[in-house]
Design goal:
Layout lengths: L6 H11 L3 E8 L6 E9 L2 E10 L8 H13 L7 E5 L8 E6 L4 E2 L1 H4 L4 H19 L7 E4 L2 E3 L17 H19 L5 H13 L10 E3 L8 E6 L2 E7 L6 E3 L6 H5 L6 H11 L8 H23 L2 H15 L1
Antiparallel strand pairs: 1-2, 2-3, 3-5, 4-5, 6-10, 7-8, 7-12, 9-12, 10-11
Length: 328
């Protein structure tokens, strides 16, 4: 198990790359995959904060090298992201990768969303929709996970094909494979029984036609109000940036609405109105709600399995109850 980086290591990282005096180092407790620290510094007599992001991840689909590549691509398309001041993905001095980022001005949208007047909520939701549409404007050649070298395509073994061999729809194949792998984990742990498993499979089979028009675009894949930073400038709310790209991949655009669905924002009439206007409803699947529900089921089966492996049985059971409500 990887040990938590020390505050002294964080100080050393800052001192190596930036000509500043360090005032304070504080651990940021949000997030599940990286260690993050808010570092307050004195820059020419002015306080300035930086974020040090540290990762032990070895998988090329979730390491910092991948995240840097995604952010670079987003920056080319005018998507607001933090400035990267320095990074080391070679583990030169420490047994982990790290990067030093700008701390964006403002606060996470989640902290203010419930307090905003209807008009302001609708307007900021419209900007969220525009932001998401901009991310999805980055079209990619195939479905798959993103790495520092681009899309990672999974190759399958196959026999020589005859002239009448069926054509396999790659996106449908991937989605079914993902849910069945996680479903097998829940069965292995005796979390769900044969009847429940059968209902989930039946639902997936009956509704798989929803996947046929999907297009591969860059998605954030963890898009929710915690990762959207907003700030008020001259009396108007603006999005100062979006953070945490470690799960970004080349998926169907509707897949990026899962977290908004899970947190209830798609059920908020005013937020949804602004979101759809900003994104452009015409660019989404005509059966948008059905598609998002389908994708969320796939994600929730995986979420339930991850929770079970972590021993968080109470939350896992809540997720299972939600899954069964959908398929029944």
């Amino acid at each position: 198990m990887n040990s938590e980086p020390t505050h002294e290591q964080v100080r050393q990282i800052i001192k190596k790359h930036l000509d500043v005096d360090i005032i304070d180092v504080a651990r940021i407790t949000e997030g599940y995959t990286h260690y993050m620290y808010d570092v307050t510094c004195d820059v020419s007599g002015q306080k300035k904060n930086f974020v040090v992001r540290i990762s032990y991840n070895k998988k090329d689909t979730s390491d910092l090298a991948k995240e840097l590549a995604v952010m670079e691509e987003c920056g080319k398309h005018g998507i607001p992201i933090p400035i990267i001041y320095a990074f080391d993905i070679q583990k030169t001095d420490y047994p982990f990768d790290y990067m030093i980022m700008e701390k964006l001005k403002g606060v996470p949208l989640k902290t203010l969303l419930d307090t905003l007047p209807v008009k302001e909520k609708t307007l900021i939701a419209e900007k969220v929709g525009e932001l998401l549409a901009n991310i999805h404007s980055i079209t990619l050649g195939d479905f798959g996970d993103f790495t520092k070298n681009g899309i990672k395509i999974k190759e399958e073994f196959s026999f020589r094909k005859s002239v009448d061999a069926p054509k396999i729809h790659a996106w449908t194949r991937k989605m079914l494979e993902d849910i069945f792998i996680d479903l097998s984990g829940l069965v292995t742990l005796d979390i769900i029984n044969a009847g429940e498993c059968s209902k989930i499979i039946d639902y997936m089979q009956k509704n798989k036609s929803l996947l046929l028009t999907a297009e591969p675009v860059l998605i954030h894949n963890d898009f929710h109000a915690d990762h959207i930073i907003i700030d008020k400038i001259d009396g108007e709310w603006v999005i100062s940036g979006i953070v945490d790209f470690e799960f970004a991949c080349s998926y169907a655009r509707e897949f990026d609405f899962i977290k908004l669905h899970r947190t209830g924002l798609l059920d908020d009439v005013h937020f949804r109105e602004g979101l759809m206007r900003g994104y452009g409803k015409e660019n989404l699947h005509p059966k948008f709600d059905d598609v998002v529900t389908y994708y969320r089921l796939i994600r929730d089966v995986g979420f339930a399995y991850a929770l079970a492996k972590a021993g968080n049985m109470q939350l896992m059971r809540q997720v299972i109850v939600g899954i069964m409500k959908v398929v029944e």
